[in-house]
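Bumping with the actual sequence this time:
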Amino acid sequence: MAIITENIILCDHCGAECRTADITSSDKHFCCQGCKTVYDLLSDNNLCTYYSLEEHPGETITSDPDNNRFEYLNHPDIKNKLIEFSDDDFSVVTFFIPSIHCKSCIWLLENLHKLSKGVEHARVDFIRREVSITYHPEVLNLGELVKLLASIGYEPQINLDNIDKKERDRANRSLYLKLGVAGFAFGNIMLYSLPAYLSHEPLDPNFQFVFSILNIVLALPVLLFSSTDYLKSAGLALSQKRINMDVPISLGIIVLFSRSIYEIITGIGPGYMDSFTGLVFFLLIGKLFQKKTYDGLSFDRDYRSYFPLSVKIRKDNKEQTVPVSSLEIGDYMNLRNQELVPADSVLMSDSTLVDFSFVTGESTPIEKKKGDLIYAGGRIVGQAVEMIVSKEVSQGYLTRLWNNEIFHTESQDKDLSTITDDASVYFTLGVILTAVISGLYWMHISTAIAVSTFTSVLIIACPCALALAAPFTLGSAMNIYGRSGLFIKNTSIIERISRIRSIVFDKTGTLTQSNQSNVNWKGQELTEYELKIIGIILRNSTHPLSKGISGKMTSGEKHEPEHFEEHTGLGISGRIDGHTILAGSINWLLKNNIDVNPGDEKPRTEVHIAIDSHYKGYFVLGKSYREGLPQLFNHLRNNFELALLSGDNDAEKSNLVRFFRSDNQLHFNQSPEDKLTYIKNIQSNGNRVMMLGDGLNDAGALKKSDVGIAVSDDVGSFSPACDAILDANRILTLPTYLKFARSSMVIIFISYTISLLYNLIGLGFAVQGMISPLLSAVLMPVSSISIILFTTTATHLTAKKMGLSSWR
């Protein structure tokens, strides 16, 4: 039978159910004064397009029942790590806020000073989802500031991982600086070189000497600073007796600079410092493209990313908030519903339910009794409990699981060298051999011609165009992937994606929707009134099964039960309108002397119902699978080997077989180690494997896979260590992502062909002594520009043809 849904009033700001219809503004209803305040602020400033982005884009604005929830931020150890600057009058702090999503969010946050006199000003970085706030600490302390942000729906994301990382990655800043130095030198040297290029007669020696010295002065920082990444990389590769693409690039850089210095010092020419600085400038543009990633996403996580920043403990009969890092063995913790257990602990309360899906993948909460050991990573379900810490945070199960060496597979273990490094070995050896032979051939005729030919070959064959093909193609592809919902860690991942032959899926949160379940009723036909009173009772429970059912049975009536009691691990009892309702497990109803018909013996999640001691039947909760999965697997099945690894039981086996077509591909009750071992076994057969998962229980498999993709319903929030983060709403685009990766590699091969043809033609003239070093230096940036234009245009046109987001 269908479960009846009745009309209710939803908040026009956040979409929550309104308990009263009295809070209104401009014919709109709000669940609380906080939501109304935000709406009024936006309305007064003509920013209500905020609500056109989606139906209910706001966050629920509620008063904090725990007024001391953010008190831990005033702890000196934490405050000193978060605050970036502080003096007697002002303090500056920057927070990451994932819920920032439009210009109205920016306006609200940048007008915090209108909500509190303690805020001086705020500045939002929309790309990073960060807000930098300057405030008066004597008026508003750090905890109160965060409470203010939370009160308007923008609670910052703060955990042990980001608090211990004060120093942000400055690699991009260094790259921009190097690019700026190279660009400045390139532009100025071009100006100094114009008289020599445009004059029909030799310049006055004095002018030529001055220009040449200025060119050397400008070129030295480019050699000693801007080009150091290439020189160091080449030196490191040679010290390890291998060759990468930076070796011939560095060779071309050194030869071009040395030849220019030689000509300037001996007075035989002006040198080619413009081409030298131009070469480095174009190479750095390619590197910038290659490094361009989405800074707001974090791909590398350790166990601290999973932990809350603080926890409440009982000490000297007083409750106080302390940093998780300060927890000691023997501390009594008070954990509430949905809070994560930060350290291995012993349960002191009578009983509780613990959700270990975060660690094991098993979605059904497990009952724990007083005295049971509860491992870190479990999430409390139901009423608050007391626990005593048995191991320090750094020694707990979750930490040991993460730090286990089998979960730390380095990238080189994946045995995937980049395509440019593969080509560089043969290219470098061929160029050096050609240059030496050409030089020896012309040596018996003229030493000057021999040296000119030798250097011309090395300069014209400098693989700048070859080196730029992959970064610009893959950089453009990575940008397109990001705009289409797949956020990739770096460009080398695209090459790995193109080689994939096997795809392994996790179930919970990957194929299923995390917060939704299918609910079906088995038993006697329920009246509309019976459905209503069952929904009212279930809505008062904190158990996820009760929430899953009551969420499908919303009622417009605000009716409180006359009596309600929740029995952890068993079920609930309540009374409404004189009717007694029992809901829970079979054992719970049997304990209350209800004659229960358990139905069939299939393993599944059931909630049995009795009204006034009469058994009515049970709700069956099944997984809600993402829409379009049959089409997805139809596309993938013909080209890839597919498998499922689930930490859950096999209750959903019959539903999953229709996707995979064979139960031999389905593996249930898989521990994190089991998943990792399975990936290793696939790779031992020579297959390249992609893993899609969403939790810590998938972390080892994700890292070991050739490509590990974390599927997330919120790409701005937590994801385990991975190579890419996939917006869960775009999982059906997976076949197109795979096809686009292969097409990107084809574009690179075409670019290589064009570059090699250019080099072969140029070398043909150079070995005959028909091209001067000057002409070689001019042709080199021309070839680079042509490759940049071709790869960028071809990549975006290919993406457009496949239906992926491209140019905006």
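The tokens above came from a reply further down the thread. The radius of gyration is 33 Å.
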